[in-house]
Amino acid sequence: MTKEKSFSGLQRCGHCANAAPMEIVGYCPQLQDHGGRDDPPFTEGYIYEVLLCPACKGVVFRRYYWCDAYDESDTVDFEVLYPIIDKSPEGLPPTIAKAHEAAQRVRSIDPNAYGVLAGRVLELVCLDRKADGNFLGNKLASLAAKGEIPDKLVDVANGLKDLRNVGAHAALGELTEAELPILDQLTRAILEYVYSAPFLAQKAEETLRKLREKKRRD
Question: Cα–Cα 20 to 30 A to 152, which of 35, 144, 159, 176?
Fold first, then answer.
């Protein structure tokens, strides 16, 4: 008799970034019984699941806390243990956040496509910050001149541009998985400097302002 398959809800794969229901191919409850005598008995603990991505066949390992005192209205929070999905930098404009997510989706599928899309993210940053110049190198120098990025980060951005060109033009060779970490780091360095640092600084200022107002009211 064939065992009926069970599936998760919508789950994003940390390998290929595809989001879809996944088959639950492994299930391991780690539950303990508590209570007795003077206390009502209950069972609680973590339940571990192994999921199979339908797109890349990669394995996702997650867990959730369960207690038999829960009712059907209680929501279950899943924690992905493997692979860990890198979150996009905070504070990104919607267009750039969408482009960065698109690049992440092809990261493990085609390094060359990832290089091209990572370069597109850089182009969008230049467009958003109103950089001058016809070519990407000129635009990066323009951002540095305006104080949008430090001079040292121009070299970083040019490195990303060069890798983008390799991914886009077959005559220059091809990118491999070995180059993916440096592409990630270069892209993040630029996004975090231009957007995340000011965003987090503003959040900190707002938190401090609220604390000062609360202190005055008290």
Answer: 176
Q: Which tokens go with 117?
A: 């899309």
Sign of the Cα torsion 173, 174, 177, 179 reads positive
Query: Quick check: 142 and 191 in contact, CB under 8 A?
Result: no
Structure-block tokens of residue 63: 């867990």
Q: Convert the pLDDT of each residue in 129-188 to its tens digit.
A: 999 988 887 888 888 888 888 887 777 777 777 777 776 666 666 777 777 788 888 888
Q: How far is CA 96 from the centre of its chain?
A: 13
| Per-residue model confidence as pLDDT tens digits over 141-156 | 888 888 888 887 777 7
ω before 21 within 30° of 0 (cis)? no
Q: Please give the single-letter amino acid code of residue 111.
A: P
State the Cα–Cα distance between residues 128 and 177, nearest whole angstrom: 30
198-203: list long-range contacts, CB under 8 Å, 24+ apart. 198/91, 199/90, 199/91, 200/90, 200/91
pLDDT tops 60 at residue 67:
yes
**Domain residue spans of the chain:** 7-82, 94-207
Look at the domain 94-207 and name its fold.
Answer: Four Helix Bundle (Hemerythrin (Met), subunit A) (1.20.120)
Number of residues that this document lists for the chain: 218
- CA-CA distance, 144 to 133, in Å (whole number)? 12
Q: Please give the Cα distance from 22 to 54 (Å, whole number).
A: 6
